[in-house]
Design goal:
- By secondary structure, this protein is an alpha/beta fold.
- It has 13 helices and 15 strands.
- Bound molecules: pyridoxal-5'-phosphate.
- Pyridoxal-5'-phosphate binds next to α3 and α4.
């Protein structure tokens, strides 16, 4: 089976974790600080504040931005459930704007239509490793005096113009096992705002400025030094791993052209894609349904996944929730019925890539 994602650690990772264990300094300390500095450098952010996972980083960001009950946050209906859960955890109300079929992400003109007197934050999600359309989103935020939180959980190092995602507004990243960079579990918040960074550092550590000097009612959102050591070990190899993801994506694009019922993902002009996922669309013109395609591909030994099978609010906890405003999102609704993510990760061999292409072409009835 060719897996949809892999987790591999080199000897350097093992050594760094072992050194950290042996040092006896395992809670938030030197290693966390080093990881924060290096990650901030990678993104080109002024501050990076590490926390225990990517959901925490979204919740912490919204809380630090002052989001509370009665406020509205607008996001994409086509995202992982953590985005919505974070909005609800702050007591805020979630609204959604439809996406663009070109990039799967929230469409700025649709976003503009959803802004109300209560809107505080625009929350674009950089899905599959590509930046959302940040230019118009930034303009919209400025015009309406709104804050921007970027859910960059899937997009470490993705760019829009000459800037990395996570530097347009407040950036929230995840280091869960399957993400492009992992610490097993982990998250980080990036910001240029000194006061916000300071507040986040207090909030994650019981509100403590110095020993038993509490400035606010905080939390324990700390990352451990062991997790930070894993993260540090991944950074030097990240440019190389991105090159392999890009080469794999280029091969898949090249060899899956002009097939009836298949749409391949493209890198939007001016955006640097980091190919967290390579997500194709199986349309109604294909000779098999999307679901049959998925089972046939899986039984041919090619791991694949549907991210995501439903719009984010189409589950029992959200359908009857007063703080989840549900309207019609025809583009996103069509996409959830068409998407399939296929392997693009850096550990694919050339033979793996050939196997993936051959099986997809066969299932869709294209010449081999
Ligand atoms: C993974 C992910 C998160 C949550 O990150 P965790 O570290 O798993 O808590 C949030 N948003 C998106 C879009 C994600 O893919």
């Amino acid at each position: 089976m060719i897996p949809i994602s892999t987790v591999k650690f080199d000897a350097n990772a093992e050594q760094l974790v072992l050194d950290t264990l042996r040092s006896g300094l395992i809670v938030q300390g030197q290693k966390v600080q080093e990881f924060e500095q290096k990650f901030a450098e990678l993104i080109g952010a002024k501050h990076a504040i590490a926390v225990n996972n990517g959901t925490t980083s979204l919740i912490a960001s919204l809380e630090a931005m002052g989001v509370k009950e009665g406020d509205e946050v607008i996001t994409s209906p086509f995202t992982f459930v953590a985005t919505l859960n974070a909005i609800l955890a702050c007591g805020a109300t979630a609204r959604f704007a439809d996406v663009s079929a070109d990039d799967f992400m929230v469409a700025p003109d649709k976003l503009a239509e959803k802004i109300t007197q209560k809107t505080r934050v625009l929350l674009p999600v950089h899905l599959y490793g590509q930046s959302a359309d940040m230019g118009p989103i930034e303009t919209l935020a400025k015009k309406n005096n709104l804050q921007v939180l970027e859910d960059a959980a899937q997009a470490h190092g993705a760019t829009y113009g000459d800037k990395s995602v996570g530097t347009f507004g407040v950036g929230s990243f995840s280091f869960y096992a399957t993400k492009n960079i992992t610490t097993a579990e982990g998250g980080i918040i990036t910001t240029t705002d000194d006061a916000l960074a300071d507040r986040l550092r207090l909030m994650r550590n019981q509100g403590m400025r110095s020993r038993y000097n509490y400035e606010l009612a905080g939390n324990n959102w700390r990352m451990t030094d062991i997790h930070a050591a894993i993260g540090i070990s991944q950074l030097p190899g990240y440019p190389g791993s991105l090159e392999r993801r890009r080469a794999n994506a280029a091969f898949l694009q090249e060899n899956l052209q002009n097939i009836t019922g298949l749409i391949v993902p493209i890198e939007q002009p001016g955006r640097g894609h980091v190919w967290h996922q390579f997500t194709i669309r199986i349309t109604s013109e294909a000779r098999v349904s999307r679901d049959d395609f998925v089972s046939e591909l899986a039984s041919s030994g090619v791991g694949c996944g549907v991210y995501y099978p439903k719009l984010v609010f189409n589950y029992p906890p959200y359908r009857q929730n007063d703080r989840v405003v549900i309207e019609d999102y025809p583009v996103a609704q069509q996409l959830v019925g068409e998407v399939v993510s296929i392997p693009v990760h850096p550990n694919l061999s050339h033979e793996d890539l050939e196997t993936i292409v051959t099986n997809i072409r066969r299932i869709l009835g294209a010449s081999l």
